[in-house]
Amino acid sequence: MNVVLFGPPGAGKGTQAKELAKHYQIPHISTGDILRANVRDGTELGKEAKGYMDKGELVPDEVLIGIIKNRLAESDCKPGYLLDGYPRTTPQADALSAILEEIGMPLEVVLNIDVADEELVTRLCGRYVCTCGESYHMKFNPPEKENVCDACGAELYQRDDDKEDVIRQRLDSYKEKTQPLINYYKEKGLLVDINGTGAIDRVFSDISNTLDQYK
């Protein structure tokens, strides 16, 4: 099965992608991960991408799609793939569609994990971390002692990108960039909305019930 996964910050997309890849034995392809791997391995496309990244510029679509095309050509993608983080714009979606048709691996379904903004804010705002690497959630996974790490006893802190005003900006930006893509795939009959509110295993069950139709 050939899948693209969408979801706003805090929707649990990363968690679900990891479990889906394991369950269906298909690779979870994160564009950020494969971009870094190409740079690390010194591939021709990786060297080209690094030139832009070193200057603080966005990697052009033609370079990124070339890296994705190469990744999809690897043997582990024969049973299918789960694309995460791409496409981000309509031109990227057009380029991806052309590449997938060329290599005979057309997209079958686009999953959109949908969660209300207020739920996302609650999830993300409650996260606190420790310098030792431990992570807590004040509602779902609180420390035994308020604002103190269970593991090392240090004071917990909230990252700047987990503060409410920043989170709402991130959500607004996501919707602005992603809504055209949601409409794009809906018009193609590929989009399936998944209710991302509730327990992780319940959301996974809903997604897997959908994907089982494409096995």
Record the SSE blueprint.
Elements: E1 2-6, H1 13-24, E2 28-30, H2 31-41, H3 44-54, H4 61-72, E3 81-84, H5 90-102, E4 109-114, H6 117-125, E5 127-129, E6 135-137, H7 164-187, E7 191-195, H8 200-211
Parallel strand pairs: 1-3, 1-4, 2-3, 4-7
Antiparallel strand pairs: 5-6
Question: What does this 3D model show about the protein?
Answer:
This protein has 215 residues and is of the alpha/beta class. The chain has a domain at 2-27 and 74-116 and 166-214: P-loop containing nucleotide triphosphate hydrolases (Rossmann fold, 3-Layer(aba) Sandwich), CATH 3.40.50.300. It is 48% helix and 13% strand. The chain contains 8 helices and 7 strands. The chain has helices at 13-24, 31-41, 44-54, 61-72, 90-102, 117-125, 164-187, 200-211, and strands at residues 2-6, 28-30, 81-84, 109-114, 127-129, 135-137, 191-195. The strands form 2 sheets. The chain has a 5-stranded parallel beta sheet with strand order 2-3-1-4-7, sandwiched between helices. Strands 5-6 form a two-stranded antiparallel sheet. Strand 5 and strand 6 form a beta hairpin. It is globular, with a radius of gyration of 19 Å. It starts with a strand and ends with a helix. The mean pLDDT is 92.
